[in-house]
Specification:
CATH architecture of the largest domain: 2-Layer Sandwich
Bound molecules: NADP nicotinamide-adenine-dinucleotide phosphate
Strand content: 15-25%
Radius of gyration: 24 Å
CATH topology of the largest domain: Dihydrodipicolinate Reductase, domain 2
Largest sheet: 9 strands, mixed
Shape: globular
Number of helices: 12
Structural class: alpha/beta
Order of helices and strands: EHEHHEHEHEHEHEHHEEEHEEEEEEHHE
CATH class of the largest domain: Alpha Beta
Helix content: 25-40%
Length: 501
């Protein structure tokens, strides 16, 4: 259903940055091409440097040329480029936000409903909100005013709460859009639809039938040129605190009353708050960390490439030691009647043998073991690189004897002709529509930090050498220590068909 969008202005802070060049500008262009932007809609890019409108428009053309190598529609380009303006906001100018208000007051050019996208350093979120408020640019008495805050929202619970306290001096919760771009992925949204739009899954979706769940995000890439950022962050904070816990919430939450943002968020909050804190004294059996060492990874065309280890990469930057994890695996339990006793294994790693994001669910043993070697059923919801649903069931091998083998029912979710939407496109659209269902409520952010903070702290305090795994390998064998039973093992890509070890 296409929702109506009010005439509005998108004010983009950090428009010259990497995120804007690669995702936001191309995403807005594609929304325009799809006819999803309102006719009266302007984009005001705000940056520190003095740039003319013409130079800025030429820069946007460069961004689009880089992104859309096969070209794009000239008429759409003309319409899009005409929406774009630039405003210089030098930090040295105490009057900068008042001048921005004066620019925005031209109602013929800038519709007065204002959506601010803060694609800037996290330390700039609170000061920008404060200055927008000081200039009267958050006042909703006549028009709506929304602020999108990029990830991360804090680096732990106290800093998230401090940021919240600071911005809520000027904003109501309904004006705040905290992003987790994973939620913009259509495959992630499909988790909820798969669960609740089909009769066959929900009755089995509980501790009576499910043995355990694995939520995985593995990458072939290493930390690249982000060594400093990564070494201060680590896999737990970068991936688990946000994307993977949100995925878990969608997999495990109770059915929302309806699809309204309030109902969906209420169920996600309840679920996140029901995750049992990890026992820090017994952490080794619940959480495993490691770092990649030098090794050989698979590159795009199937060839191998020798790559350096994480500590070697840090050494090149002058960092002599680090216990920051590039591999993190947790065992989580959810204290509610549906999930009591079911382990949820959440893992993420860099420099693995394959890149894959998936939810794999193993069902309990069938009530009757009819034959030797009968496997348990698996259901996999694959998010990337291929969006698909795969079910593994046992079936008789044709012939005189009674023996079973595993059949794989594999359905691509994406079909020829389906739209390919980047997660930022749907999130930008939702921001303008005023639909926060794919954005995080502060209670979700808090519950996520509350769970992760004690593990981050315990790992930082333990300065003993971190386990090493060769780049390009699979999960370190030692990570199996967190499994609840000896017959559990890490599942890998569905592309490997039946490969279980
Ligand atoms: N890149 C991604 O894929 C990605 C993914 C997830 C989250 N994020 C988040 O999105 C935000 C933007 O990311 P990004 O990669 O686009 O960042 P970026 O390229 O480092 O910078 C964004 C903008 O911030 C301004 N800026 C940079 N350094 C500054 C400084 N020292 N003082 C004041 N302003 C400065 C620049 O704008 P002007 O010079 O024009 O003022 C720049 O265009 C961050 O909060 C990041 O955590 C990014």
């Amino acid at each position: 259903m296409v929702k109506k969008i009010d005439p509005c202005t998108l004010v983009l802070f950090g428009a010259s940055g990497n995120l804007s060049r690669v995702k936001l500008m191309p995403g807005l262009f594609r929304l325009d091409a799809a006819g999803r932007l309102p006719e009266h809609m302007a984009i005001l890019s705000v940056g520190r440097g003095e740039v003319t409108r013409e130079a800025w428009q030429a820069d946007i053309k460069k961004m689009l040329d880089t992104k859309f190598k096969d070209g794009y529609d000239k008429a759409v380009f003309d319409r899009f480029i005409a929406r774009n303006y630039y405003h210089a906001n030098p930090p040295s100018d105490a009057d900068a936000f008042r001048k921005m208000k004066a620019t925005l007051s031209n109602e013929q050019v800038f519709p007065q409903n204002l959506a601010y996208f803060l694609s800037v350093r996290p330390t700039d979120f609170a000061p920008i909100v404060e200055q927008l408020s000081g200039a009267g640019l958050l006042d909703e008495s006549q028009y709506w005013r929304r602020v999108l805050i990029e990830k991360p929202f804090g680096t732990n619970l106290p800093s998230a709460q401090a940021l919240q306290a600071s911005i809520t001096k000027h904003l109501k919760e309904s004006q705040i859009y905290r992003i987790d771009h994973y939620l913009g992925k259509s495959a992630l949204q499909n988790i909820m639809l798969t669960r609740f739009a089909n009769t066959m899954f929900e009755p089995l979706w509980n501790n009576q039938y499910i043995d355990h769940v694995q939520i995985t995000n593995n990458e072939i890439l290493g930390v690249g040129d982000r060594t400093e950022f990564y070494n201060n962050t680590g896999a737990l904070r970068d991936m688990v605190q946000s994307h993977l816990l949100q995925t878990l919430a969608l997999v495990a939450m109770e059915k929302p009353q309806d699809l309204s943002p309030e109902s969906i968020r209420a169920e996600k909050i309840k679920l996140l708050q029901a995750i049992r804190p990890l026992p820090i004294k017994d952490l080794a059996k619940h959480a495993f960390r490691a770092q990649y060492s030098a090794g050989r990874v698979c590159v795009g065309d199937g060839h191998g490439e020798n790559v350096a280890g994480y500590l070697d990469e840090l050494a090149k930057e002058g960092v002599s030691a680090s216990v920051t994890e590039t591999y993190a695996a947790l065992k989580l339990f959810i204290d509610n009647p549906r999930w009591q006793g079911v382990p949820f294994y959440v893992r993420t790693a860099k420099r693995m043998h394959e890149g894959n994001t998936a939810i794999s669910i193993r069902f309990k043993k069938a009530p009757m073991q009819l034959v030797e070697g009968q496997h348990q059923n698996w259901l996999t919801l694959n998010i990337q690189p291929r969006e698909c649903i795969k079910m593994e069931i046992e079936s008789k091998i044709p012939g005189l004897d009674i023996a079973t083998r595993t059949l794989s029912i594999d359905a691509p979710q994406r079909q020829t002709g389906d739209e390919s939407i980047d997660s930022y496109e749907s999130l930008l659209l939702n921001l303008m529509e005023g639909d926060p269902s794919l954005y995080l409520h502060i209670s979700e952010v808090e519950a996520q930090w509350r769970l992760i903070d004690p593990i981050v702290k315990a790992w930082a305090e333990d300065q003993s050498a971190v386990h090493q795994y060769p780049a390009g390998s699979r999960d370190p064998e030692q990570s199996g220590i967190i499994f609840e039973s000896t017959d559990q093992f890490w599942r890998y890509s569905i592309e490997l068909g039946g490969d279980k070890h």
